[in-house]
Amino acid sequence: MxxxxxxxxxxxxxxxxxxxxxxxxxxxxxxxxxxxIVENSHTNMLxxxxxxxxxxxxxxxEDFLAYLGIGIDIDSSLKVGFxxxxxxxxxxxxxxxxxxxxxxxxxxxxIENKVNGAGNQKEQIKKYIEGVCQDDRIFSNCxxxxxxxxxxxxxxxTKDGFENxxxxxxxxxxxxxxxxxxxxxxxxEGPRYVAVNYRxxxxxxxxxxxxxxVMQKERSLNSGLxxxxxxxxxxxxxxxxxDKFMEQQRTLLKKQLMLDKMSFSQKNECLKGxxxxxxxxxxxxxxTDMDKAIIxxxxxxxxxxxxxxxxxxxxxxxxDITRHYFVEEKRLxxxxxxxxxxxxxxLYFRDNHWPKGIHFEWYKLGIKRLESGNDYALCFHVExxxxxxxxxxxxxxxxxxxxxxxxxxxxxxxxxxxxKAVPSEGPILSxxxxxxxxxxxxxxxxxxxxxxxxxxEILKAIYAKNV
Length: 467
Known about the structure:
By secondary structure, the protein is of the alpha+beta class. The protein folds into three domains: 1-20 and 243-311, no CATH class; 39-209, no CATH class; 330-465, no CATH class. Helices cover 47% and strands 15% of the residues. It has 18 helices and eleven strands. The strands form two sheets. Strands 6-7-8-9-11-10 form a six-stranded antiparallel beta sheet. Helix 8 runs antiparallel to helix 9 (219-235) and helix 10 (243-256) crosses helix 12 (290-312).
């Protein structure tokens, strides 16, 4: 069946305008400034926040790295460099990097921002890495090129996790060890490559970690954060005022696309096609006034949000059962955090106070495996800084507890990983609620209170030592 995406988009625009007229009056300086912020401005704001420093050091930067599980240790004796649109001298052509954070001869973090869906240039990230390694301000001439590459990190920053680097850059990152040997262009991952997005990472970090920690006397910082958080929620179509309207449109789209008659992989392909269509129509055509441009951008963001929710809908039962088991029934965790990528299923969960790099994860839940497989595995990963991994390695009691629960230790890039095979009688998505609950409860029973308490004790020791 061929879907008329354009017809639904036109109908959605009309419905959206009618809904906006019924809402309370909203004033956001970012909305009114340009309708949508250009990518460089988003990078500038992130860099400005990460530069925040008090008597304890670069506390926002250190929290950001820990939140994302980025294994960079800030050396308090060295100056931290923060650059926006950082100039570099390339082998064939000079250029600019969206954002760059570095300490001389210690580390360089390249930030490439694609929040507005800008296309990849050929070998774009590769050129950035080469340019950084040739920069005397960042690496001394005496430092060997291979050593330089081992100190380079790449953050690929998108709106919702849908985009990836160009294939040439990905192959180069594998060659120099930034991406792992098993990494693919469709699923880039590795010891010094991090895929970050505004929906799952930047916005939750700003709301949960940064804005609540700002002191009352820092009024300009606090007001700026509140405005920017509100803008991001509007960009991602998750403002509370839009909830009822979004649910109505979600139901309408589900009916028109006949998603209930499709398999999970068919739904995924259909919704992915719609998402690609929206990317091609992300900018209004022809001459238009500012108000229409703002509405168009907000509509595209709202539609993307609905598409993502519909794609995740088949896994809602897995999320709910997992959260209920650990938080409400067993009270092993105070609150679970989950992550799920549109292109690929990375289903992991962790306690609220655990950094993102420390988590349990179903490994790996591709679309085909969810629909037709039965060879699943549950893992515990420590993907944080080298010093954090060292502290976890020193606690042999944790390894003993995992071994007693049927987990075995494995090497996975530069992380610590304990894995347990948990085969099922059939695919996860073919189970009804009762079957899924029995299966998940049986799997999760291997995660004991003693094991969780041991993890928490290790984290307390790490926090106490300020590792």
